[in-house]
Amino acid sequence: xxxxxxxxxxxxxxxxxxxxxxxxxxxxxxxxxxxxxxxxxxxxxxxxxxxxxxxxxxxxxxxxxxxxxxxxxxxxxxxxxxxxxxxxxxxxxxxxxxxxxxxxxxxxxxxxxxxxxxxxxxxxxxxxxxxxxxxxxxxxxxxxxxxxxxxxxxxxxxxxxxxxxxxxxxxxxxxxxxxxxxxxxxxxxxxxxxxxxxxxxxxxxxxxxxxxxxxxxxxxxxxxxxxxxxxxxxxxxxxxxxxxxxxxxxxxxxxxxxxxxxxxxxxxxxxxxxxxxxxxxxxxxxxxxxxxxxxxxxxxxxxxxxxxxxxxxxxxxxxxxxxxxxxxx
Length: 329
Ligand SMILES: NC(=O)c1ccc[n+]([C@@H]2O[C@H](COP(=O)([O-])OP(=O)(O)OC[C@H]3O[C@@H](n4cnc5c(N)ncnc54)[C@H](OP(=O)(O)O)[C@@H]3O)[C@@H](O)[C@H]2O)c1
Fold this sequence. Notes:
By secondary structure, this protein is of the alpha/beta class. It contains ten helices and 15 strands. The strands form three sheets. Strands 3, 4, 5, 6, 7, 14 and 15 form a seven-stranded mixed β-sheet that branches. It has a six-stranded parallel β-sheet with strand order 10-9-8-11-12-13, with helices on both faces. A two-stranded antiparallel sheet has the order 1-2. The structure holds NADP nicotinamide-adenine-dinucleotide phosphate. Residues 49-51, 143, 146, 165-166, 168-172, 189-191, 194, 208, 230-231, 233, 253-254, 267-268, 316, 319 line the site of NADP nicotinamide-adenine-dinucleotide phosphate.
């Protein structure tokens, strides 16, 4: 076991309340020590995902009165942030085999990766391909595994014409590339400023907004065989129902009761829905390989210093350039 300097403070970013990005603050904590079967990783890049700001927005949280302090916050229940990162192992606990200090790794799923250091169980480690940059490695897995899962749920592959709603986002650009790699034709909705990027990946872009079904029909005269919804708007929902005959070939990652009632595949929402944990974990090795060779591009929207996590979240909320937001400690 290699010891890290326990006395050296390390930074971690956490919310101090439920609310807007302004509630995020930087705290100093001791460098963590690894338990058995765990390593400590010095974080070089942490991927930012919409779930991060949703977690402390209050959207998921029904705070019971007896747990609230004077600010109306269940202080003991504030979430940690950062579900993915990449970095260098600095210490390994007992019973760790196959990985050692100095190894460059991707951690997914991670806990509290908005930090200088994370502890990670062996099962969450994937070797970082040498040719992959830190930002790209830190932002690959959550979007990549989600894209893999949603394409699987819609049964999208060779010979399909797939409609991808929200194609220029973090998950969208992965979905487009993976669908095309599997032999599908992709019709991709995005703001016009992002169409060039989508064309570059081989998709046919269309602008979302009123008249969407007709624009999709014009772009795909042979019809749409499957649709994946990465935005959850009423427009995406209704357009998919209108254009795809088989509802089991429509999948959404931003679903609600309305999507469930329509009988489409809703990932991560509602009773009986498959969280896809096994499929997502199994996809990590292939995603790393594809990204390492450049066959899958991890498009980086912006890299922010760790201490500017609030700024990164605000840009996510305001609408950001295509691809992934990243924090760099
Ligand atoms: N269930 C799951 O497992 C799971 C996993 C990951 C993410 N998610 C959810 O999926 C959503 C997307 O995640 P992400 O990481 O890709 O977010 P993101 O990077 O912020 O991308 C969102 C994209 O939505 C597009 N958009 C905005 N308004 C739109 C509209 N009216 N119609 C079509 N597209 C529109 C934007 O594209 P333009 O700039 O081109 O407008 C933007 O690129 C989030 O809500 C996230 O929480 C769910």
